[in-house]
Design a protein that fits this description.
The complex is a heterodimer of chains A (about 160) and B (about 160).
Chain A lengths: L1 H8 L2 H8 L3 H27 L8 H5 L2 H21 L1 H4 L3 H29 L9 H22 L1 H4 L6
Helix pairs in contact in A: 2-5, 3-5, 3-8, 7-8
Chain B lengths: L1 H8 L1 H8 L3 H27 L10 H26 L1 H4 L3 H26 L8 H27 L5
The chains are: A mainly alpha (about 160), B mainly alpha (about 160).
């Protein structure tokens, strides 16, 4: 594990992040922008499935999803930049492992939705209630992304070494 | 500066600054509120700019209510964070730019919502409204960027 983390630290990206004055703050700003995009869209999509925003057709709300994917991509890239800066700081932090776990669960939930539910939900009439399973998954999705956000915000608090 | 010194020295502000849990909890609230306000404002602005066209404007009422709750959370948590370092933050240019961006972003959202409400349904959005949506999105973008910059530019306490 240490060898892997050392390798990550010594990649050109790691060097660039540490040696370029503004690289880290810019990655942080991007991460905050990306999380707002992702959370804003997930709020609208998940709350619609849960029965809020009843005036909007399901298909119109689902068209927002690419905006969430853009937010997720921004955060994946900026997140990799953070890790490359100092992988040891992250892989010794319990909050980081929990955050990764919930990203994985949120991602699996999103994949499940995309392949198993998207078409069915998009075809529902506006006044219909979404199936119970879809509503449970929507509530879980909101909860998981919220936890990802909170665990991320708490990374410096749980860091064994001061920093972040 | 009398008020800010007083604020920073209140027992409550001192508690927020020194308690091991209080400050991280404030940051958590502030992050959730930020994502709620800015995320929903961006969704509404995107809709005004034409994406996604099918999304009915009737959803704006509920969206802006939720966004306002997020704003309230951040006004309260933000003021509490401010109270812990009021005398230093007030001299920070990045913080003042953030506040100006929030003021512009807030007025601009309010104007955007008012204009949308007054338009007859099925009327195409005028260019001026689209400009407002763009300004709104940009102002909240600036608020996030400069909020993050405060952490890098604020003078150390001693």
């Amino acid at each position: 594990m240490d060898d892997l983390l050392r390798w990550v630290r010594d990649t050109p990206l790691g060097h660039f992040m540490r040696e370029t004055g503004n690289a880290f703050p810019v990655a942080e700003m991007s991460h905050f922008i990306g999380l707002s995009l992702l959370m804003g869209v997930m709020l609208v999509v998940d709350l619609r499935i849960l029965g809020v925003f009843k005036q909007a057709s399901y298909s119109s709300v689902l068209k927002l999803i690419p905006m969430a994917i853009v937010g997720f991509a921004i955060n994946l890239i900026s997140g990799v930049c953070f890790i490359a800066t100092n992988p040891f700081l992250y892989f010794t932090n319990p909050a980081f492992y929990w955050k990764l776990t919930f990203i994985l669960l949120g991602g699996l939930n999103a994949l499940w939705f995309t392949f198993a539910e998207h078409r069915q939900i998009a075809g529902l009439p506006t006044d219909a209630q979404a199936p119970a399973l879809a509503r449970v998954m929507a509530a879980a999705s909101l909860g998981m992304w919220m936890l990802v956000l909170l665990l991320g915000r708490l990374l410096p608090t749980f860091a064994p070494v001061a920093g972040g | 500066m009398g008020f800010l010194t007083w604020l920073q020295e209140t027992e409550f502000a001192q508690f927020l600054a020194s308690d091991p849990y209080a400050y991280p909890v404030l940051l958590c609230f502030h992050a959730i509120g930020m994502a709620t306000v800015v995320g929903l404002v961006w969704v509404m602005s995107a809709r005004v700019l034409g994406y996604p066209k099918g999304l009915t404007i009737e959803t704006f009422h509920r969206m802006s209510t939720i966004a306002l709750w997020g704003f309230a959370v951040n006004a309260v948590s933000g003021f509490m964070i401010f109270s812990t370092e009021a005398t230093r933050v007030i001299d920070n240019a990045e913080f003042l730019i953030k506040m100006a961006a929030i003021l512009i972003g807030g007025l601009s959202v309010w104007y955007m919502m008012r204009t949308v409400r007054q338009l007859a349904p099925d009327v195409a959005f005028p260019v001026s409204l689209k400009v407002t949506a763009f300004v709104t999105s940009a102002a909240w973008f600036v608020a996030i960027v400069f909020g993050r910059l405060v952490a890098y530019t604020i003078k150390p306490p001693f």
